[in-house]
User: Fold this.
Amino acid sequence: MKILFILLFAPGLLFSNDDKETSLLIEAESFNDKGGWLVDPQFVEQMGSPYLIAHGIGNPVLDAHTTFNISQNGEYHLWVRTKNWAPGDWEAPGRFQIKINDHTFPQILGTQKDWNWQYAGHVNLKQGKHKISLTDLTGFDGRCDAIYLSTVEQAPPSDIDELVEWRKKILQIPDVPQLSKPFDLVITGGGIAGCAAAIAAAEQGLHVALIHDRPVLGGNASGEIRVHTLGIYGHFERILKMLDTEHYPNGSPKAHQEDIKRMDNVKRYKNIHLYLNWRAYDAYAENDIIKHIDAKHSSSGERIRFEAPMFVDCTGDGWIGYWAGAEYMYGRESVDTYNEAWEKHGETWSPDKADNFVMGSSVLWRSHELDSVSSFPEVPWAFDVAQDYAAANGEWQWEFSRNDLHQIDDAEQIRDHMLMAIYGSFYNEKQKKKNDRLALQWVSYLIGKRESRRLVGDHIYTFNDARNEVKFPDSVVVEEREVDVHYQQNLLDSDKPDFLSEALFYRTGRYYVPYRSLYSKNINNLFMAGRCFSCSHIGLGGPRVMRTTGQMGAAVGYAASICKKYNTNPREVYLKHLDELMKLVLSSDQDDNLDLGL
Amino acid sequence: MRGFIWVAVLIVLGSSKAFINDQDPGCTKILEFPAKDSVFLNPVYFCSDSLGKNYYYSPLKTPVCNDTLCQVVFLNIFWDLAGNYSKFEISPQIPLTKNDHKPFTEEDYDKLDQTLKNGNSILGDKTEDELLDTERSRYSEKIDGVTGATAKEIQSEIVEGALYSTYTLWHMANGNIKYKLREYTRSNYSYSLQQQLLESNNPKTIIFGLKNMEEEFYFAHFDQIISLMKQQNLLVNFYIGKNISKDVLDYGENKKELLKIWNLLDPNTQSVLSKYLKQ
Assistant:
């Protein structure tokens, strides 16, 4: 069958026809007017695409609209790729409808388990321009990935691998991005570590690309997730003060002010090329050297190939290393692997046998008192998780990890589990007489991860480096915060809900992270900074907070400048140019009286 | 200041009634451990009750001091065979008192017990210097002056008005003594002790017992492992799930017995056992 593909006005909107079939795929994230729907690109690697989510915390969000052209009159069947995120013996939480022009399809969408194409109905369309709208019915996180119209009653593929290929074909996605851009350094991930790396490298004259999949910088510290920054500045006070936050309670809207400060400071650097809303999706290595990484715009679908002699993985999940073939670790090592026992806490600290029980992800949230009485809808789909737990806000303890759930592969399930916990607990709290004016104020829809893949470097940082306060010749990061490792409360008390954690603190003096933990052992031009640096599960417990990961970023930014100067790689900087690196790092000290023990 | 505190301790000691020791006759003294910051050496006994159940016990005597005065606290503390605090008793003649010398209420004793049972309490991570929030202060009738207010993060862990007593007793009950008692249990390990450890309600105590078990036990007492798992203690079940071997599950009817309770198991435990159930 010969199919003619014609690109229409809006990206993400593709049309095909031949004498038998006319069809059209509209990517929801490319809608011209998204109304109150939000673009959620967190789970692209698992479910295939960014999608629109109606995150109205119980209040239906404004309609999303876009227009499309029909080339041929006919009867069109319509499918919507969606998901019921809390299936069970109740009405689905995220229900919505589709409207084309003035015709609302009666079929309620968002009601089928798992990501799949749900049939919405059929409609006669005439040649010309039409308007399509998404109408949210609940405000409880209905989701729409794409809409497919076809004159033939044949749904697109369900299988994720087939769907990827089908999408490539129908959207005419070339294997190679049409646009390539060269830089001195490409940093992926605009959290505190990525921003610090960008500033440090830019100050040394490098042309830097900073790729980030959100509209604001800061990652877990951003106004979208709202974790305050902890740790000390180490040698990088001046840089980190441009990026960090006050010590307000987690979840505070003050995070937005810090976003503005951070963005203004990063934008001041002319040689930092900021790619916001761009998400990397591949890294290609040849002979253990990354040649380029490819990224895609989260709404428009445009693609760019980023080329550079050096790359920094600040994705948190270690995606760049993973794609390039870097060695990595995941889960809790057995207690004997690195001799990390702390008898006081035994299995909750470090287990006899390795497992996948990493520190979990949090979804922060808060409520507030209104001037008048407010209502909150019934949420029967939330109680399998929330049970009878009641709360009015959620701090860091709202954290979820389970041995059978992977913090990357199952991230959407983890996020949705937390949403059920939050909505159900708030509903329970709201039933108390004193709370008739209480209303949800903010619930993040982005998960704040603590731990996922850890890329392996020349040095694996462990608990013993912290408790023995080991000083290294290449100590570029210094910290004095407790080693702080979490476990799920229900492990020790089965009556506790599964979405709350507890922290175990091991006190130590100053400890140091060596430069050798900040570049890959087997990918020769890859640095890493952030929670994906080279460490054991317990080793991550201390330096995982954001001023400390910011120190890592600044250190690799400087190291990258030395790589460029000598046309060399990260390991050679340690072997041949360590004095120069340490001089650069120490020159960042703003406080001459600060004894950092080097 | 320290000299003044010691004078206060001796005065209180001299005036107090002799402490009544109600220890079980089936007790053997096994060691002594010092009270916090003091010369008192507290004996610790290994005991058997009338049913042959074993436990550790100490008639504890320790000074509790804040910046301005000290008192001596008397308390019988009991630990289980894994050295985990299990309960306390007080002599009716010598109740615990608060800063203002008012005796503890029943609620205060319950709160103290609850805090002492929390081996992970944040009190374990705090030095005495960190107990007070120096930016706030409050009035104390007893010492006729202003004292620091309890640091916010530990408020939920302490008996109101008895900050230093709670803190001191937590460290006495949950400090290094725990490891000495565990060592004593290990060096006197027997089938009887093992059974008692596995019959505990405390998951940490059960895991202490499991860690001391040879694989033969899983073969010989699989019914007991199943009984343990039925209690649905998540940490215990997860530990069993990770440490049980394929050989044990392939033995006799063990796999069938496990399948019978499969729906009682949590996702963590199921995730580590499911590989054994695939044919």
